[in-house]
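Good morning,

Both structures are done.
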Amino acid sequence: MTLPEVSEKVGYLEAVLGEFIVQTQRSFIRLEREMVAFKEEMKAAREHSDREMKEFKDEMKEFKDEMKEFKDEMKADSKIMKKQWAELSEKLGSFAEDISLPNIPRIAKEYFNEPDILTIMANVRKRNALVKGDEFEFDGIVETTNTVFLMGAKFTARIDAINQLSKLENNFKDVFPEYASKGLVLIFASMSIPGNMVKKLTKMGI
């Protein structure tokens, strides 16, 4: 191979190598730009994700605060409702007492031949002198010459109230020993008493 031919080939190789170097540099530059863009996109995505996570946490905190406020309101409303219901129950119970108690003198006269009424007491509270802290409430007490009529009144008749009548009788005897010489008649009063409860009261002698 002649010198000119060698020179020509070397020149060609140099040109090819130069072109390769240029293309490689361009590729590196493009890759570097793409990497920079990718990093910026990742940074933006991470910042966006962080913002969304912060917003989510803030929303969750706000939701929890609202739930706590709602629960507090419900708790307060529940207390108010219980108080109002207790007040209503007390008023209804008093209503039953107010209607029933005036009828006991008539019952005493017509069914027990006790026309002479000595004492009528409504909503009586009395402490047990022998047991400290014991205090009992009685809806109505009517005393005649030979008998004491003890009334338990409920606006709505319930079995548990009927079952408490024997306890009511024992409590009365504990705090009113002065009536021990007289007969004791229990009366259960309500606005309406179902038939099965009437039978139960009859079996109890009431």
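Second structure follows.
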Amino acid sequence: MGDDNILKNTFPQAIRISWEEVESLLWEVFLELKSSRYDPDVVVGIARGGLAPARILVDYLQKKYICTFQMGHWLGDARLSEKPNIIFPLPEVDLSDRNVLVVDDVSDEGGTMEEVISYLTPRVGDIRTAVLISKADSRYKADYCPKVMQQWRWVLFPWSRHEDLLSFTEKVLQITGGATLEEIIRILEDAMSVEMISSEIEKVLFDMHQASEIAEGSNGIWTLI
């Protein structure tokens, strides 16, 4: 199955965040907002990671207005840029006299939120930011952040877990040349120090198989096509 050291150096250490934990973290953000007496007119969820948290937070705040725009590192010709760019901008709406709360799921290095602030500042009345989790070495410190990670970990959020696990599973198959469901789970758990749910990996394999990216041998070993 290959060198375990190679596998551990390939995959990041990770933590799994449940929906219940998400709601608890967002409730802390809500309480911080109330304590600071900041009353946003509009909540902006940064696509894609900030969409689900923004919707839940709007519910807690009992606000009606939510909008979004999308950031990304992709350029038009499929090249990656060093800094995140606006892929889909805000809708044409006047926010010049509105209090705006910008929501994202995680702040890794802080580059995304820095670009967001630069983009929104001339377009809104007042702006504050909230993230569920911030890495300790992030350059940007959000106004509201209930959880700071002192040690860097990949965060498996409910809304992006399938995409993450698909990428990690593909890497396992690339390195090993082929693996069973049980072997994939063991490798990822050992390398990333986080629990893997069998049904989630089964969905990943189903998705990859439907896309004709992998094939299953008679011995239950999945290989890349």
